[in-house]
Structures are given as structure tokens and as C-alpha cells.
Amino acid sequence: MTKRDERTRLIIDQTIQLLRDEGSEGLTLRKVAAACGITLSNLQYYFPGKAELIQATVAQFFTTCQELIQADRALVLPKDPESSRAFLKRVIEVLVVCDNQEFNVIFREIWALSSRDAALKATLEEYYRNYAQWMIGLMEEIFPQANEIVSLLIPYAEGYALVGNTLPLNREKQVAMLVKLITEWPASPRSGKAGARVGVKR
């Protein structure tokens, strides 16, 4: 890792810390610079404005999630229903019913910021489009109805980040519920297996 990479990561880490501790209203470039032990002008060399800093923080989140899942994906045998089910469970645990409270808090704050910043909102929407396509590509060899599954899981993940701790089912039961729902989901007509069940032994 280069010195620039190390400094960039430090800045993003301190941004996350401030978002978690003080919320979006408390996040300023001056506070981030002070937390990093650098001058404001030095911070702005890396991130000219608050929008660029938030965008980099979002990108880092998605990259971290992708790296975790890609490592598990390499272990999956697409033709093995039990392996596929285990992979799906891992995807849901990491990306959907996420127990990383830091991620949940950060994204609540980032969406709050985007409600007042059209450019940031557009950036987030573009990330989510790309993220959805990445998830579809990740799952479509295993689950023919990947479009439908991803269209369910991404909004569920956003909702869970907001209200997951208030739901009547605990995290483990929510994961099990989603795995069951998806593995018993009828394959889409385009797969040529209408009415088939995915990952379920008959």
C-alpha cells in the first residue's frame, strides 16, 4: 500500500468515525482533518469537498462488501444445491441482514446527506445500479431468477439498516426466512424451468 493509499484510508476511516459519533450534521472537513492530524488544505488535496469525501466513503463500503463475498463465491459449486444455499446464506448475512452496526449507522447518515445534495444522491443511485448488476452477476449462475432476487434483497437491506433491531424476528430467523423464500422461489419463465424450485431436493 502506497503512502497515498494509507492516507486516503485514514481519512475515510476518520470520516466513518465522525459519521458514527456525530451524525451527518457534525461532519465537516475541518473535523476530519483534525482527527487525521493533518491540515485542512492537506485533506483537500485528497478530497476537495465534502461530496467527494462521502463518495469515496461509499465506494470503500461497496468494495469491502464485494471482497468479502467474492472470497466466498470462489468456494461455491454452482451445481451443488447445498453449497449454493450456504453461499446465499452468506450473501444475506453480509449484505442484507447485516449485523455491522457501523455500516448501518453510516448509511443512514449518508442517505440523510444525500437528501440535501442532488449530486450525492445521483452518485448513490449510480452506485446502487452498479451494485445491483454486480449482485445479479454474482448469483445468476446459481439462481436463474437473479433479477427478482436482487430486486428483493437490496431494498430489504436498506430497510433492515433502518429498522432491523425493532422487528419481531431476530437476525438469525430473518436470514433463515430469506434463504427459504429464495430457494423455494419459482424459476422465471426465461430460464425454461417454470415452476421449478431452486436448490431444493425433490
Automatic annotation (TrEMBL):
Residues 5-65 form the HTH tetR-type domain. Gene3D superfamilies: Tetracycline Repressor, domain 2. Residues 28-47 bind DNA. One of its GO terms (molecular function) is transcription cis-regulatory region binding. Keywords: DNA-binding, Transcription, Transcription regulation. InterPro entries: Homeodomain-like_sf, HTH-type_TetR-like_transc_reg, HTH_TetR. It comes from the Bacteria. Pfam families: TetR_N. The keyword Transcription regulation applies. This is TetR/AcrR family transcriptional regulator. It comes from Dawidia cretensis.
